[in-house]
Amino acid sequence: MANRPDFTPAADLFPFQSRWFESSVGPVHYIDEGPDDPAAPAIIFFHGNPTWSFLYRHIVTELRGEMRCIAIDYPGFGLSVRPDGYGYTPGEHARVILELVETLDLGPYWVMGQDWGGPIAMWVATEHPDQLRGLIFGNTWFWPTDTLAFKGFSLVMSSPPVQWAIRRRNLFAKRLMPSAMRHKLSAQEHAHYQETQPPGMREGAAVFPREIRHARPWLVQLEQRVKERVADRPLLLVWGMKDLAFRPKSHLPRWRSTFPNHQLVELPNAKHYIQEDAPAEISAAIRDFVAATRA
Q1: Given 93, 115, 192, 251, which residue is catalytic?
Q2: What residue spans define the domains of the chain?
Q3: How much is the average pLDDT of 139-158?
Q4: Pairing state of beta strands 132-140 and 109-115?
């Protein structure tokens, strides 16, 4: 039987209408906020590990008066289903989210992704490049892992003791998230990340570290798709300059070399979870970028 967390977001922290899509693997949760205007630009937000659409709450609140803001929870995250027999790989997530996206009647659209949301958003974008107006990414990647640091992180996080801590002690949501952001979460905010990863429903968070290495064939294919289908699109990079995982010097050159039409907004004090550390700066950058690329 498929399961979902028994959790209701606080209305003051997550002032959005929850929506549900009956995907091929079960109910997928998302929000779709914006003006009552079919011509409003649409932007789809993709989260990473172990987060969910809650991560984008400040940005959606800031932009929903002028843009259609769609934020999705992958299976295994947030309020979405934990399906039996599901592998929680990025390729599976991309296929499921693509099912939803193809029902949304988007027209021209933009995507934003961070952490694992980068590769997943890129895959979805390369499926419908004709409608894609622009790309927004921060502290993420779209190519096969080729650094010792990332391979080492994957090996450590995939080891039995750490996997036990993720599954049994909620290591990602309780410990790793707070250490990877400058902003100090309130107890209630932190609970929204912890309680959407309840006991027995943490497989998605546990699988992602392994996939840094195991998803290499999928990432090889993705990098080729990016170069062939969307490398000519405008790219906005919003980068947390204090992120110890996605260091600017080791990641930005590859983005810049692939996307000639790019701009960079540095977030000088932001760490990995840029949506928590610099939502106002990101919202302003998105507003300017969408206006410039809307035609």
Answers
A1: 115
A2: 19-293
A3: 93
A4: parallel
Q: What is the pLDDT of residues 229-266, one digit of tens each?
A: 999 999 999 999 999 999 999 999 999 999 999 999 99
Q: Hey, what are 4's tokens?
A: 């979902």
Q: Distance between CA atoms of 33 and 17, rounded to whole angstroms? A: 8
Instruction: Sort strands 19-23 and 26-33 into parallel, antiparallel or unpaired.
Output: antiparallel
pLDDT digits (tens, 9 = 90+) for 39-72: 999 999 999 999 999 999 999 999 999 999 999 9
DSSP string covering 266-294, please? EETT--S-HHHH-HHHHHHHHHHHHHHH-
Per annotation, catalytic residue among 29, 251, 272, 277? 272
115 carries an active-site annotation: yes
Strand (E) or helix (H) holding 136: strand 132-140
Q: Which CATH superfamily is domain 19-293 in?
A: Alpha/Beta hydrolase fold, catalytic domain (3.40.50.1820)
pLDDT-derived band at 2, boundaries 50, 70, 90: low
Catalytic residue selected from 192, 243, 251, 277: 243
Angle 193-267-208 from CA coordinates, rounded to 5°? 40
